[in-house]
Design a protein that fits this description.
The structure is a homodimer of 227-residue chains. Chain A is of the alpha+beta class. Helices cover 15% and strands 33% of the residues of chain A. Chain A is built from five helices and 16 strands. In chain A, the strands form four sheets. Chain A has a six-stranded mixed sheet. A five-stranded mixed sheet of chain A has the order 4-16-15-11-12, with no helix packed on it. The model of chain A has no long low-confidence stretch (mean pLDDT 96). Chains A and B meet through strand 2, helix 3 and helix 4 of A and strand 2, helix 3 and helix 4 of B. Bound molecules: magnesium ion (3 copies).
Amino acid sequence: MASSFFRTGKKIIAIGRNYAEHAKELGNVVPKEPFFFLKPTTSYVANGGKIEIPRGVVAHHEIELGVVIGKGGRDIPESEADFHVAGYTLAIDMTARNMQDEVKKRGLPWTAAKGFDTFTPVGHFIPKSAVHDPHNLKIWLKINDEFRQNGTTSDMLFRIPQLIEHVSSIMALEEGDVILTGTPSGVGPIQPGDAITAELSEPAGTEPLATLNFLAVQREGGYAFQP
Amino acid sequence: MASSFFRTGKKIIAIGRNYAEHAKELGNVVPKEPFFFLKPTTSYVANGGKIEIPRGVVAHHEIELGVVIGKGGRDIPESEADFHVAGYTLAIDMTARNMQDEVKKRGLPWTAAKGFDTFTPVGHFIPKSAVHDPHNLKIWLKINDEFRQNGTTSDMLFRIPQLIEHVSSIMALEEGDVILTGTPSGVGPIQPGDAITAELSEPAGTEPLATLNFLAVQREGGYAFQP
Ligand SMILES: [Mg+2]
Ligand SMILES: [Mg+2]
Ligand SMILES: [Mg+2]
């Protein structure tokens, strides 16, 4: 079931640089076609949980709209993409930014920098029927009650049907897979002790579609990054 | 069940440059600690199947010993790693080499270059009890009956317990996860129409532990790489 993606999903496909302002803030150019990386589903942590920051790691928040796949498929054309979407979720694509900077320089995979346990804090499943237009949603993230990211999904460079067409032309999608659609500008570090809140909502200020609450803590043991 | 990893496993963790001769042949230095990337399980294709080469892609074979995780865990010390191994498998880490060269230059993820459908041809589950010593196995790959790779797992730079300790210090391992342990030298392109065979065996020429047979074909439709 797509609604149990947290438990049963096999992949998390995360799109890079899908908001022009965010590409700019990291000194990157806007891509000509979408690109993506995989995060392991072991990086999920459910709403209310703790985000663990590994030793030596500068951990950045990236708030993102997640698309939950319902019906799997391969070579899905843009025009049929909506049929494969079961719903949405709100997620944070946590990133070990100093590790990522290093592997980018050396031409190495992004996997570890993006894949630590608890590096994909995520909310509940939002059925498609509850969302008026996924490309017109307010999305924000606060640290200790201060806005850090405050954007709208209308700023996506590649829209959801294009992302589904692109990804499924390379790798088949399956029920429960989640596509993280990229982050608006304002990314930055979180520190142990920080309270992270985030929200996804329709523009006409009704009840939010999702509200996230996480506490950042220092990871005990595990990998230590030494630059 | 670990033995059904093909159907139920969630991640494929592939180690890079774990044989000195292979690192050298691609002009890379030997890493100081293991590094890895994820392949989606949608890239599995079972023995006897077809390896599809996407348009514009130079697809290289990398024959690898796969370790199938039985008992999951996090922060698994080297000394306890064997307890988490259920068995082994023989797999080919297919790689879109020209795409990989391009993303390495640009500091982008390896994911698409490694993650196409059918890019992880794989054999059956080999229970741990059937293998005398995983670090002393002959491993070879032939194209149209000619040897291309012919190595021994005794040449691994980082051994299986070290790999399990390293990976699990970053991301938790789960039952059915597969760790591909890197490839010996001799990687190179396969062409549509090529017959690929591969074998894993004990050094004292008894029955092979695994024999793979795949046919390479041109992928119809899907992504086309334009350098
Ligand atoms: Mg992101
Ligand atoms: Mg995966
Ligand atoms: Mg490999």
